[in-house]
Design goal:
By secondary structure, the protein is an alpha+beta fold. The chain folds into three domains: 234 residues, no CATH class; 323 residues, no CATH class; 101 residues, no CATH class. It is built from 26 helices and 19 strands. Helix 23 crosses helix 24 and helix 24 runs antiparallel to helix 25. It is elongated.
Length: 719
């Protein structure tokens, strides 16, 4: 009776498993970690492949494989328990089934490790231990089911990638080999055909992927363009409305909606303001001063005269032409920008899109003209730069604005730090360098700013904030330098911009001296109070930021609540109202998370490299040996090949290589492996060299081929 021969599975192609694991990782991260998709895909691919290689290494040592399985199960349980202790089971379920509405680092780590264990083990088991193509498909169902549950399905590109991964994994699975005595059959032709079929399949699949259209519902395309320039979001209200009585106050856990408030079209994007506030009331935020709620309609000429570059050009040219002799040395040093942006005007159109009806005109701070479609009534402007219409503009209003392109002329600022503005402008009017209307506009703006400062400072500022402002601006005499120092201080002092942070108090004192963490309204409130404490006329302003990621296919900025922003506007002589924004230098809350993720990637990569180095230590050793032969002489090659062959053969017999002669090496290789010819060529060549001082006529390449055949046969026979 013939004993049934049990097949041995050999020849699994590791690279095909890596492709399959990458495809499943990409698909799953598109569902779970969409906000950090590329980063998490790389991490999960590395971890799952490490798990695969762990079990691949123990494929012939089942006891170790069982221990590895138990160790991974325990590790997954510990990590999951830790993640759930940090939050809740419900939170983790939401993370899995809410289509990446939010990103949580701990949940991401837990899910990546859990699914990596599932993917890595199942792919190894069903492609190496017990190859079963139908079961090999099972792990791919996880991202497909989750995506169907949360997003209605995966994009076409991911489906194709999964199909490609499954196809190459099946083609690269191990094949059964039956023992013939003690030697396994090595069908080189069969393996060559398999590798060719995998390559052809891969090329065809790659061609299909290139023509599959990118799904517009997935952010992956834009993510690749912005992964190193992570966009930030800003707190804001959900609907446009008429002027409000109070500013927005940060209560924490902000989650702006995704509806479009309005579309802005311009070739030179700048921040647009909505309204400003004057009085700070602690927990209740900002309110308006009664003296600054009235607008005037004759503002266009006044604003058009406030062209600082035009003023600098006229004053400098007058000094060159021999006028204003008293100030000539200073005026000749004025910088005049001649590029197409500075001092020029730009246009912007705004179309309200949230079905609101309003009188408020959203506008750049240096707006000089407004035209409203279908509106013929008056347009008013307050002294703190709010703009509104006499009658309602109607639902989804459309209007166009013209504004000066902002640019700071520091030389003009420094001029007015040394010379009184009224004095030099009066002289310029007398010598007919500028018009009296221009002089009046600049001096009126200054007068209004100083009056505004006096009225707003009537409200006392916390002495601690005053002291802090003095410390930040110590040694500075220029308002411009003080303003920039206060703005940069938020970065130097380690403040963090965090939408999710829930403050214990909604006060400037709590933000400045305790939490140092908040949103734009917190930064703007603190900045405004510090600037006022430093003696600089400043107003708290709320508006919107036009960011490139909001551009739609028509070239419009689709402005949403996430684009709402709060900042300070400070008056600086020679410049006008300067935007000061403490969030410019603040650290984003997820920057620390990104550093943690980067550290995790490095650790995982090092661990994966260590695993790969351990698993492929023999292959690496052989590779190093092969490369070293290239740099040896023929005699050196013969010596190295013989010594390595001797070590290989002695490991079969359990003898010491140093005490084994060349003839014994030859005899042992012949008896154990049946390779008399190959062993004799190596041993004879070594005898000639080591004991006769002669070089064999057999080429070193032939001796290396003999060595490789001996090594390969030993491995096949499991000697």
């Amino acid at each position: 009776m013939n004993k049934r021969v049990r097949p041995q599975y050999q020849g699994a192609e590791i690279i095909t498993a890596l492709i399959y694991l990458c495809s499943m990782s990409a698909a799953l991260m598109n569902v779970l970690c969409r906000q950090e998709q590329l980063l998490c895909t790389v991490i999960m691919t590395a971890v799952s492949f490490g798990v695969y290689m762990l079990f691949y290494t123990f494929r012939k040592k089942r006891a170790f494989a069982v221990l590895a399985f138990v160790a991974l199960a325990i590790s997954a349980f510990v990590i999951m328990s830790f993640a759930l202790n940090q939050s809740s089971a419900a939170g983790f379920v939401d993370f899995i089934f809410k289509n990446s509405e939010s990103f949580d680092v701990m949940f991401a780590v837990a899910s990546i490790f859990l699914f990596s264990c599932i993917f890595g083990f199942s792919v190894c088991y069903f492609s190496v231990y017990l190859p079963r193509p139908s079961f090999l498909l099972l792990p791919a169902l996880i991202p497909m089911i989750l995506s169907a549950r949360t997003a209605g399905g995966l994009p076409a590109g991911f489906i194709v990638f999964l199909a490609v991964g499954f196809g190459v994994a099946v083609l690269g699975s191990a094949r059964p080999e039956f023992p013939n005595d003690i030697v396994y059959i090595d069908d080189k032709k069969s393996r060559r055909e398999r590798l060719i079929s995998i390559a052809i399949f891969g090329v065809i699949a790659a061609l299909i992927l290139t023509v599959v259209p990118r799904d517009t519902n997935t952010p992956m395309g834009s993510y690749l363009d912005t992964v190193f320039n992570k966009k930030s979001t800003f707190y804001g209200q959900n609907m446009l409305s008429n002027f409000t009585n109070n500013s927005g106050v940060n209560r924490g856990a902000n989650n702006p909606s995704d509806n479009v408030l309005f579309y802005a079209t311009t070739s030179y994007p700048v921040n647009v303001s909505r309204w400003s506030f004057d009085k700070y009331n602690g927990e209740s935020g900002w309110t308006s001063h009664p003296d600054y709620t009235t607008g005037w309609s004759g503002w266009r000429t006044f604003k058009k005269n406030l062209n600082t570059n035009n003023l600098a050009q006229k004053l400098r040219q007058a000094a060159v032409d021999g006028y204003l002799e008293e100030y000539a040395p200073l005026l000749k040093n004025l910088t005049v920008y001649n590029d197409r942006f500075y001092g020029s005007t730009a246009k912007m159109t705004i179309r309200v899109a949230d079905n609101s009806s309003t009188k408020v005109i959203i506008h750049p701070s240096m707006t000089i003209d407004v035209n409203i479609n279908g509106y013929t009534d008056d347009i008013f402007r307050t002294y703190k730069d709010e703009m509104f219409t006499h009658s309602n503009m109607g639902t989804n209003a459309f209007y166009s604005l013209e504004y000066y392109i902002p640019r700071t002329n520091e030389s003009l600022i420094r001029l007015f730090e040394q010379v009184d503005m009224e004095e030099i402008l009066t002289a310029a009017v007398e010598q007919e360098i500028i018009t009296n209307s221009e002089k009046t506009s600049f001096l009126s703006e200054r007068s209004q700013a100083l009056e505004y400062n006096e009225k707003t400072l009537a409200e006392p500022i916390n002495p601690e904030i005053v002291k802090l402002a003095e410390e930040i601006t110590e040694g500075l005499t220029s308002n411009y330098d003080k303003a920039l120092a206060i703005e940069k201080w938020f970065g130097e002092a380690g403040f963090v911009y965090d939408l999710d942070f829930v403050p214990e108090e909604s006060t400037a004192e709590y933000f400045l001296f305790k939490s140092k963490r908040g949103i734009c309204s917190d930064f703007a409130t603190a900045t405004t109070l510090l600037l006022r404490a430093a003696g600089i006329p400043t107003k708290y302003t709320e508006g919107f930021v036009l960011k490139s990621e909001n551009l739609d296919e028509y070239g419009r900025y689709a402005v949403k609540p996430a684009n709402a922003h709060a900042y300070s506007m400070s008056y600086i002589e020679g410049l006008g109202w300067l935007e000061i924004d403490g969030t410019r230098y603040a650290t984003l809350a997820n920057d620390g998370e990104q550093l943690a993720m980067a550290a995790l990637i490095i650790l995982i990569s090092l661990a994966a490299l260590a695993i790969l180095a351990f698993v492929f230590r023999k292959q690496l050793s052989e590779g190093v040996f092969a490369v070293s032969l290239l740099f040896k002489s023929k005699n050196g090659k013969i010596r190295a090949i013989y010594l390595r062959t001797r070590k290989l053969v002695c490991s079969i017999n359990g003898t010491e290589p140093e005490s084994t002669a060349a003839g014994e090496v030859c005899a042992a290789a012949g008896r154990s492996l049946g390779l008399y010819k190959e062993a004799e060529e190596i041993a004879t060549s070594a005898d000639l060299l080591l004991y006769g001082g002669k070089t064999t006529e057999i080429p070193a390449k032939q001796l290396y081929r003999d060595y490789r055949k001996i090594r390969k046969t030993k491995r096949k026979m499991k000697k």
